[in-house]
Each structure stands twice: as structure tokens, then as C-alpha cells.
Amino acid sequence: MVVSSLLEIERNGYRAGKIRGRSKQVDYYRQIQQVVRSRIVRNFHSSEECFTPDYSIPYASCFLNSNYGKTQFILASEDGTLSVFNSKVSQRGRKQKTFQNQILKPSYTIQAHNNCIFDVASHENSILSASADKSVRKWDAQTLTHIDTFIGHKGSVKTVVPFHYSPFRFISAGRDGNVFIWDSRHPTNSSDNNSSVLSLKGIHKLRGKPFAVSAATIKPDNHTLITSGATDGIVKIWDLRYGSAKELTRIDLQLGVKCRDDNIYKSSRSRGITSLCLDTFGNSLLANYIGTDIMLFNIEAEPLVTNVFGGSGYYCDSFYIKSCFSPECDFIISGGNAAYVWNCSQPSEPIKLGSTEITSVAWPHFESILTISDDSARIYKIKQNPSTCTDGLNIYNFKRRKCNY
């Protein structure tokens, strides 16, 4: 039986963020610490209807667009399946406060690809999935009905990124070293004959040979593209206007990058980059490097290292590991040898969540932090009304079933 466990601790009534002041930010950070110490676990077990009988590892995850509420999330798996879950507990269940052997079944599950799915993204009223079968597919978010297939990559597609405020355009990047910009309104876009509206080929090279593009993201202006290399360890910033792509600047730690204190941060070797994430305004770029460092760059002018996150045993050794900002960009969370949460003002003092390797993470709402490991999906929440339960936390009693590998 496949296990999809979900750790849920509910929201605590106030939000962290610059608009509420630093005291609230510190309180929110302490609440997360309290959550970790409590170790209260709620396990949702997936039935055979959820995945194939063989064990399938979840590779990617995301919450659905806010149009579908704040509780629905999707898991993409090694066997090519997509499953939509709803983490909301019924009001009747909340009154009982104790739950025995409850099973959370997916709302929908489909065989989306014939190979593993590396990335999934919520795109307006649709879902985009990127797979090792060299294709990107578009699905209806409500029913998981297939809408379109986009073919063009010559290798596995590693990442898919929707444009901001556009239901039709998105970006894909893959192991073939190519980045494609797609528009589903383009007349040649069909399952039999695909054509991207713009292509960037072999943009990350090492010793003259193209290597995989490990991550990509786009600024809110919808014309500034950022890509990273899996081998060269370089971040490149592109201008997509005028029907072409022009490289504006690059961030190479081997050459050195200016730091906030005017010193130069320099690496003795190139390190692959596993993920990229922009803050809400598109000014700060979070880059997750193989090793022990996560870099925060200010990219508005000359690239500037504003913070280096690490410490407490954090280590990243896989290109499946992702990191992201909190909704108001006061915190970051990253996978690794465990899940780690940093306060942006305290980069060397992370909170460690759990003890197993975490790959995909998501923090779309203040009440929900989603982490993915090889055998489970967990959501961390801070409680809304601490006075109703012991120590301000709901107590859940679930029996965890054995996972057959």
C-alpha cells in the first residue's frame, strides 16, 4: 500500500509580514518552531485507487489556483500519474477532534504521461505537467481532462513555468539544453504538430557542449526570463522582447559576485543549480545550489548577493530538490536532507522539519506549507484557535500503514 502522509497543524490567527511589523514576523517564526517541537502527525493513507499497486515516488507538487480554494494540491509521480487531493477536514470531523484510521483519497487520478513527471504547475484554470517522455501536457484543473500536448524537446522536460496573468503562455526547459516559449493559441500547436513561438537552444554550455537547463522562471513583467544550468552553475537573465532572446547578464560564482558588504563571493568550482524562485516583485532571486548554500540575489541592477542561507546540517545533493519563498517573502523553505525554514533576517538559523530527505516544497498560503518526500506529502499548518486544544494544537491519532518498497 502506498503511503501519502499529511502532517497538518493549523494556522494561528495572525500573519507574518512586513505590513504587520517585525514583532508579528518574529511571533510567526516562533509559532513554526512550536509546531516542529510538537511532532503531532496526521497521516493520510492513499488507497490502491490513488496510485498503481507498485510503489510510486512523488516527484513534484503544487497547490491549485486560488479559484479552487486553498486546500487542493496535486502530486505528480514517478509512474506518470497526476493526483489531486483536498486537505480540508469536514466540520463534523473538526468537532470530533480525534480521527482513527481516516483515509484521504484523491479527488482525481489519471495516467498523465508514459514516464515520470518532473514538474507540475497550476496555470489559471489548467494544470501543466512536464515529463521524461519529452512532452508538456495541459489539463483541466477541475476534471483533469486532457487539453493539449506540446512536443519539441529532444530530452526530458525538467521544468514548466506559466507566464504571469496569461492563461495561454508558458515556458519549458529540459535536459537537451533548450528553453521553449509556448502559446496554446498558436495555430500549429496540436498533438500532431507542435511549434514553440520562441526557442533558446543550447544556452548553457560547458567546454562548448550544451548541457541541461535545470530551472527557469520569469519576472512579473513577462519579458525577463531567468535560466540556470545543471552543470555550469551559471544563472542567465534574458530579455524576450522584439521576437528574440537577448542575454542581459549572468551570475557565475566562479568569477565572483558582489556581496552586500562589498566583498566578492567566489566559488572554487562550478556547482549545479537545482531550482530558481523569484519573490513577489521580481527583485530578489533565490537560487538553490548543489551543496550547502542557497543564494539570495538582488537582480534589479548589478547582481548582488544579499544573503546566503545554510547551517544546521542543511545539504542539497539532488536536482529534484526545490526551494521557494513564503507568500510575503519574509521566509524561505527548501528541501534537502530535511525540510528547512529560514527567516530572511536570520539566514544562519533555520528550523529543521523532520529528518527524511525532502524534494519538492510549496508555500502558497500562510496556513499551508507543503513538503514532498519519497513516501509522503505533508502539510504544516498553524492553528486558528489555540485555546480549543491542548498546547494550542489539534491532536490527531492515526495509524501509519507499512509502505511496501
From TrEMBL:
Family: Belongs to the WD repeat cdt2 family.
Organism, as annotated: Aplanochytrium stocchinoi
One Gene Ontology molecular-function label: protein-macromolecule adaptor activity
SMART domains the record matches: WD40
Stretches of the chain forming a coiled coil according to its record: none
Designated name of the protein: Peroxin-7
SUPFAM superfamilies (UniProt xref): WD40 repeat-like
One GO CC annotation: nucleus
Claim: Repeat is one of the keywords in the record: yes
Keyword terms, alphabetized: Repeat, Ubl conjugation pathway, WD repeat
Domain of life: Eukaryota
Pathway where it operates: Protein modification; protein ubiquitination
Magnesium listed as a keyword: no
InterPro entries named among the record's database cross-references: WD-repeat_CDT2_adapter, WD40/YVTN_repeat-like_dom_sf, WD40_PAC1, WD40_repeat_CS, WD40_repeat_dom_sf, WD40_rpt
Pfam families: WD40
Residues in WD repeats: 110-149, 206-248
GO terms classed as biological process: proteasome-mediated ubiquitin-dependent protein catabolic process
Matches recorded under PANTHER family: DENTICLELESS PROTEIN HOMOLOG, LETHAL 2 DENTICLELESS PROTEIN RETINOIC ACID-REGULATED NUCLEAR MATRIX-ASSOCIATED PROTEIN
